[in-house]
Automatic annotation (TrEMBL):
The keyword Cell membrane does not apply. Pathway: One-carbon metabolism; tetrahydrofolate interconversion. GO terms for molecular function: methenyltetrahydrofolate cyclohydrolase activity; methylenetetrahydrofolate dehydrogenase (NADP+) activity. Its EC number is 1.5.1.5, 3.5.4.9. This is Bifunctional protein FolD. Catalyzes the oxidation of 5,10-methylenetetrahydrofolate to 5,10-methenyltetrahydrofolate and then the hydrolysis of 5,10-methenyltetrahydrofolate to 10-formyltetrahydrofolate. InterPro entries: Aminoacid_DH-like_N_sf (IPR046346), NAD(P)-bd_dom_sf (IPR036291), THF_DH/CycHdrlase (IPR000672), THF_DH/CycHdrlase_cat_dom (IPR020630), THF_DH/CycHdrlase_CS (IPR020867), THF_DH/CycHdrlase_NAD-bd_dom (IPR020631). It catalyses: (6R)-5,10-methenyltetrahydrofolate + H2O = (6R)-10-formyltetrahydrofolate + H(+); (6R)-5,10-methylene-5,6,7,8-tetrahydrofolate + NADP(+) = (6R)-5,10-methenyltetrahydrofolate + NADPH. It comes from the Bacteria. Homodimer. Residues 5-119 form the Tetrahydrofolate dehydrogenase/cyclohydrolase catalytic domain.
Amino acid sequence: MSQLIDGKKISAQVKEAVKQEVATLKQQGIPVGLAVVLVGDDPASKVYVGSKKRTCEELGIHSEEYLLPASTTEEELLELVKKLNQSTTVNGILVQLPLPKQINEETILNAIDPIKDVDAFHPYNVGKIMIGDFDFLPCTPAGIMDLIASTGVDLTGKQCVVIGRSNIVGKPMAMLMLHQNGTVTICHSKTQNLKEITSKADVLIAAVGKANFVTADMVKPGAVVIDVGMNRLENGKLCGDVKYDEVQEAAGYLTPVPGGVGPMTIATLMRNTVTAAKLQHKRNQK
Ligand code: GUN
């Protein structure tokens, strides 16, 4: 029977530390602000954006929400990003992905000032992560690293397997585990003999986007299993990428959905926003 990794509890600790830091910065006359931009009305994105706003309020972070219609053009969104780059009340800019198809995501992400890029999606920040000299880490992978750290498992020399190769999770996740001396394998939809690879993993990250994809026979007994999935079933229930009931019997540690990775992503976003505010303050002092 595996041990539950409690993302709710660990994220609460991160948020408490952020809250105290925000209060200290405020006393020094350094306000902290985040702008969240949502284009269109994707229901899942709306939920994420709402909880980001609520968490800002909870921690004393100024938040600005920009809800734009699905018909917004690339030029209009670029205008807003440029305005937010210049804004003195906004330290962090998050443009919720995915964007409607008339807007090129890369064009938008490239337009965000890297010092306000709290998602760490700008090529400048992606490159810094690759080198291992970074200001921001992408929220979901950084949150997962905190969850892994909470188990006490040291990644040095361990087989670490990521299923999924997205820019948001899979690729940066692999890089962060490599920085901690893991032996990392990235699997994806074209991978052959997937089960053979995953069943050797000491740490398995499931970022597939398919409900119940990871079954007990794919998991090494005692492994740390992190479920990044957020799949909405037909009955409205939220479900991860891991078949929880059976993998729970095999894994050593397992994250639940909800209450695992999700809360950590938001907590890390808040931490990144504070980092952004401090970096900008330092730059402005020069
Ligand atoms: N869509 C899904 N995850 C994320 C994220 O971490 N950041 C942004 N901006 N969009 C997302």
